[in-house]
Design a protein that fits this description.
The chain is 31% helix and 18% strand. The protein is built from 13 helices and 11 strands. The protein has a 9-stranded mixed sheet with strand order 3-2-4-7-1-8-11-10-9, sandwiched between helices. Helix 1 crosses helix 2 and helix 6 crosses helix 10.
């Protein structure tokens, strides 16, 4: 299972501003994010010969973006899917390099997720014909992710006594982290009361239980460990990856119980043996936070706490900076920006390098105060292993384990 462990690395990361009115095309933003990742890794356009993207009808194909950057591609794929795509694309990049189709792969996501095609059941997406997988959801009123996921959340509350107050601590923690992050769209710290007093979207989700919608582009660059040794930044090794693992029924998750079970339950049995570690060895998590509840359910299913104890886990302080295992230290998608999970991986790469960009005067040299009061440091002390938990729907997920 661990044949590819530590043989591949992430060597470059980059992103554009997280905004709600980019005034730019997804093509222009993609070029900026990829160029920044190349610069971060000390790579020139000729050094990158593979490209992968995740798009949901609102991006620009790799075959267009590549030539804009001056790259000639030996391998490229544009994937349609949910938020679990990022970890899966990292695994595909490793496989493409392993079999010799290319040497270095840029993975990007570019989206005008607020000013153009929004994710909810309104606007262009709401007017689209009902077909394919939507036949199992939209006729029953599940036209947005919150509506589609709510049954899993509600069942967890019913079965285990989980409360909205407990889960609101996810937003509280991520807002604290965002207050340390100059790039975050929402930097204001919030309280549990703020979350519970915000208006209902669909029970049990309040407005502040939901992620921020933004325009942005993001990029990761993957290459072999052998090649990474010659590049400028500290290479971050890939210990294990699980891509788009699904429950027995993926068309209608509620047809196969338990209803509150999500795909991480199955993905953990792939990614942890591959990496040769267990949950207790992970210092930092990036658990997908389309909603506060998605973070809680995944941390539970991957074994960071027992089933049914997710509410107690996220409300205990463990996931905050200064806690035992911080989660989404950039503010995540609840506060920094919504990227279908790419920013969560970018943050973990920077944390493992020891250069999480914050307000510390010496952050670029890895000199941190570890003062987690507002507007100060967000670097996790002595972090060695980080894990990303991707989410598409309750029935589909991915995972990625990285180390220094």
């Amino acid at each position: 299972m661990g044949l590819l462990k530590d043989r591949y690395c992430i060597v470059g990361v980059g992103e554009t501003e997280y905004s709600r009115n980019s005034g730019r095309s997804t093509r222009a933003m993609a070029v900026e994010a990829i160029r920044k990742a190349m610069d971060d890794g000390g790579l020139s356009p000729k050094d990158v010969d593979g490209m992968l993207s995740y798009h949901q009808n609102d991006s620009t194909p790799s075959l267009i973006v590549g030539p804009d950057l001056g790259t000639r591609l030996n391998f490229w794929v544009d994937m349609i899917g949910g938020g679990s795509s990022i970890e899966a694309l990292v695994g595909i990049a490793m496989g493409a390099i392993e079999v010799g189709m290319c040497r270095t792969v840029a993975i990007f996501r570019s989206m005008n997720g607020y000013s153009e095609l929004r994710i909810g059941g309104t606007g262009a997406r709401g007017a689209a014909p009902v077909r394919g997988q939507d036949l199992a959801t939209r006729p029953y009123g599940m036209s947005s992710p919150g509506q589609a996921f709510a049954p899993s959340f509600m069942r967890h509350m019913c079965d285990y006594g989980t409360t909205s107050e407990q889960v609101a601590h996810v937003k509280v923690a991520h807002s604290k982290h965002a207050s340390q992050n100059p790039k975050a769209f929402y930097k204001e710290r919030v309280t549990v009361g703020d979350v519970l007093n915000s208006r209902w979207i669909v029970k049990p989700l309040h407005l502040l239980d939901c992620c921020v919608e933004t325009d942005n582009a993001t990029c990761l660059i993957v290459t072999s460990a052998e090649r990474a040794r010659d590049l400028r930044p500290r290479p971050i090794s890939i210990m294990g990856v699980a891509g788009r693992v699904s429950k027995p029924r993926s068309d209608f998750a509620f047809a196969h119980g338990p209803l509150s079970r999500v795909a991480g339950y199955y993905a953990k049995d792939i990614v942890f043996p591959m990496a040769g570690i267990g949950p207790e060895d992970v210092n930092l998590t990036g658990s997908y936070d389309a909603f506060t509840f998605t973070t809680m359910l995944q941390l539970e299913e991957y074994g960071f706490c027992k089933k049914g104890e997710g509410g107690a886990y996220v409300s205990s302080g463990i996931i905050e900076l200064g806690g035992k295992r911080p989660n989404n230290t950039s503010g995540g998608q609840l506060c920094e920006g919504y990227t279908h999970g790419m920013n969560l991986v970018i943050e973990n790469v920077r944390q493992l390098r020891g250069t999480a960009d914050d307000y510390c005067p010496g952050w670029a040299e890895g000199k941190h105060s570890y003062d987690y009061s507002p507007g100060k440091c967000r670097q996790v002390k002595d972090v060695e292993i980080a894990m990303n938990l991707g989410w598409s729907r309750p029935e589909t997920g991915s995972a990625l384990i990285l180390r220094r």
